[in-house]
Design a protein that fits this description.
The complex is a heterodimer of chains A (257) and B (353).
Chain A lengths: L9 E10 L2 E11 L4 E6 L5 H8 L7 E6 L2 E3 L4 H6 L2 E4 L11 H5 L10 H6 L4 H14 L17 H15 L3 E5 L7 H16 L4 E4 L3 H7 L2 E6 L2 E6 L6 H9 L6
Parallel strand pairs in A: 3-8, 3-9, 6-7, 7-8
Antiparallel strand pairs in A: 1-2, 1-4, 4-5, 9-10
Helix pairs in contact in A: 6-7
Chain B lengths: L27 H11 L2 H19 L6 H26 L7 H18 L4 H24 L5 H20 L6 H7 L9 E4 L2 E4 H19 L1 H11 L1 H6 L4 H27 L10 H12 L10 H20 L4 H26 L1
Antiparallel strand pairs in B: 1-2
Helix pairs in contact in B: 2-13, 3-8, 3-11, 3-12, 3-13, 4-5, 4-6, 4-11, 5-6, 5-11, 8-9, 9-11, 12-13, 12-14, 13-14
Classes of the chains: A alpha/beta (257), B mainly alpha (353).
Chain lengths: 257, 353
């Protein structure tokens, strides 16, 4: 394994989450190492979403522990996870379509101006925000100039995805989690988003990629976490494991030795 | 049919397809759509200009006198102030049926305290502002904590405020003369100054100041951006870390305070404090917002649009009256405008998905 180093950046041990009689997480483990792309695959209802929600503070597990850099952490809300440097690109993207690209990038963490108006009434430093938004998008190679004020609703699906990824990459200091980033996209746009994911990785941010698309997973992932029946079944190396085998493990047709 | 099977197509990478990072698209329809999306008030501004021209032609030069145009503005001042409150609520995809009743309740509080009970007028005005904020806070709590649809919550408080204003005033009008002798400041916004031949009331100036301040908060502060975001997509806002309920609550409170401002302006406009006043003000304020082009579905629109909407209503009423048309046709025309405005909004929204 090329990327595995000793201490996982983000780790979960024995996570349990029950909804009434349904056990969504059944002593699930999880490890993400620095600098890697970890794909999480699993059949519908395997508990992937609940696992990710627990890691991002959207769900509070009944049992188990979460560690960052080996230190135990406790996320009570998505805001807690964000403050710890974990950014999530939701499948719904969580963008406000009628707002501009710059407004969306800074939604919920706007920069105040340094002047009196900023201190008294919370006036925004729009110039700085637009500059930073522009920088961030061009750094990821997804933006031509003078369009930062465009509303998000005027963008295509792939472009919106790119904005959501850019937002996560701009603010995620430690981890970026992406939920089905290519599910709603065509071939050409998927290609661009995969490139974008590799660009983000190239900047040193580890990525958790939840996806149903096996070719995409096998193309970009360093390791593949296979989730089944509420827990981690195994982690495979995409260079050593074939796609049909991974699917077979995911669906239970193949058991792990 | 022993034809030969056609050879498979050779794959050629399309070279001139729009590429992913390119944000430019020059198809004309899309261009129009972009313009309409970015500046939806183009439609209402056009309607306003056309209606001014048409009425000018029908009525003649009398319509264009500065005196008459200032009169139109004075006639829509109260509804415009109330429309500002309504705009904030509608931007969050809510609706406030109680604004008119709250406005009159605040004017009653001012009048009863200052005139009937002999309080210092300034204190009476401050109390009315508290009453407005409290009324808005009740709406806000019902819409957030109690999770009632704003329509139902404010339908309830509308009736409550109506009852309170009748009770507190004893259903009695406080006549203009008494206000003038005991608390003339309550009529302040009806006064004004003459600029040449045109009379400009302080109420009109207040209207522009209020819209300027609110514009700043809506467009240049995080709070304003959150108002738009919450109305546009509450789930996305929540995921982005915005406290949706807190934003909604603050909007209703601010709307309540603006209702108190409207109540003060109202006294200046009609001279007296009349609990029977403003029966249709809530619907008139919604009319101004909708005709201006602000979307009832939230997240889209502006204060500027509401001002235009109120002016369109004012121009129609004034113009039709000057043309000697029966008042019922004013309602007819306004009704058509509302339907037209909502159809336009639907079309613009459809284009954006």
């Amino acid at each position: 394994m090329s990327v595995s180093q000793d201490v996982p950046l983000l780790q979960a041990r024995n996570l349990v989450k029950r909804y009434g009689h349904v056990v969504a997480l059944d002593r699930a483990d999880f490890e993400l190492y620095p600098g890697e792309i970890l794909a999480v695959i699993g059949d519908n209802g395997a508990g992937k979403s609940t696992l990710i929600k627990a890691l991002t503070g959207a769900v509070i597990p009944d049992e188990g522990e979460i560690f960052m850099d080996g230190e135990p952490v406790r996320f009570r809300s998505p805001l807690d996870a964000r403050r710890a440097g974990i950014e999530t690109v939701y499948q719904t993207l969580a963008l406000a379509p009628a707002l501009s690209i710059a407004d969306n990038l800074f939604l919920g963490r706007e920069q105040r101006s340094k002047g009196i108006l900023g201190r008294l009434v919370g006036a925004l430093d729009r110039a700085a925000m637009q500059r930073r938004a522009q920088d961030e998008l061009s750094r990821l190679g997804i933006m031509t100039v003078q369009s930062i004020k465009q509303t998000v609703e005027t963008l295509s699906g792939g472009q919106r995805q790119a904005i959501a990824v850019a937002r996560a990459a701009a603010f995620g200091s430690r981890v970026v989690i992406m939920d089905e980033p290519t599910a709603a996209l065509g071939v050409r746009e998927s290609r661009r988003v995969l490139d974008l994911i590799l660009t983000v990785k190239g900047r040193g941010l580890p990525i958790v990629l939840i996806s149903h698309n096996m070719p995409h997973v096998f193309e970009v992932a360093d390791r593949i976490h296979i989730h089944r029946l509420g827990r981690r079944l195994t982690v495979v190396d995409p260079r050593l494991c074939s796609m049909p085998d991974a699917v077979a493990m995911m669906t239970g047709a193949l058991t792990v030795a | 049919m022993a034809g030969t099977r056609p050879p498979p197509n050779i794959c050629v990478a399309p070279s001139n397809e729009p590429d992913f990072p390119s944000f430019s698209d020059t198809r004309p329809l899309r261009h129009l759509r972009l313009i309409l999306q970015s500046f939806p008030s183009i439609v209402s501004v056009t309607v306003l200009i056309i209606s001014i021209i048409v009425f000018g032609i029908i009525i003649g030069p009398h319509f264009f006198t500065p005196f008459n145009l200032s009169l139109v503005l004075q006639q829509v001042t109260v509804i415009s102030v109330l429309g500002a409150a309504q705009t904030l609520v509608i931007l969050t995809a809510g609706i406030d049926l109680s604004v008119g009743a709250l406005m009159v309740l605040c004017s009653v509080v001012m009048g009863v305290l200052a005139v009937d009970m002999g309080w210092p007028p300034i204190l009476a005005i401050v109390m009315a502002f508290f009453a407005g904020a409290a009324g808005g806070a009740i709406n806000g709590i019902l819409a957030t904590l109690a999770k009632l649809p704003p329509f139902i919550a404010t339908l309830g408080t509308w009736n409550v405020f109506l009852a309170l204003e009748l009770w507190y005033s004893g259903s009695q009008t406080i006549v203009s003369q008494n206000i003038f002798t005991q608390a003339p400041i309550l009529q302040f916004f009806g006064n004004g100054t003459n600029i040449g031949a045109v009379r400009v009331t302080w109420g009109e100036l207040l209207l522009f100041a209020l819209f300027g301040i609110l514009w700043f908060f809506l467009n240049r502060t995080a709070w304003g951006r959150h108002v738009y975001a919450v109305g546009d997509d509450p789930d996305a806002s929540r995921l982005a870390g915005i406290s949706v309920d807190r934003v909604l609550f603050s909007v209703y409170v601010v709307a309540g305070v603006i209702c108190a401002v409207a109540g003060w302006v109202l006294i200046g406009r009609i001279g007296s404090v009349t609990p029977q006043e403003g029966q249709t003000s809530n619907l008139d304020s919604i009319t101004a917002v909708v005709i201006g082009g602000t979307s009832l579905f939230g997240g889209r629109g502006s204060l500027f649009a509401t001002l235009i909407g109120a002016l369109i209503v004012g121009v129609f009423e004034n113009g039709l009256a000057l043309a000697g048309v029966d008042a019922l046709w004013q309602n007819f025309a306004i009704g058509l405008l509302i339907v037209f405005a909502v159809i336009m909004d639907q079309q613009i929204r459809k284009l954006s998905i």
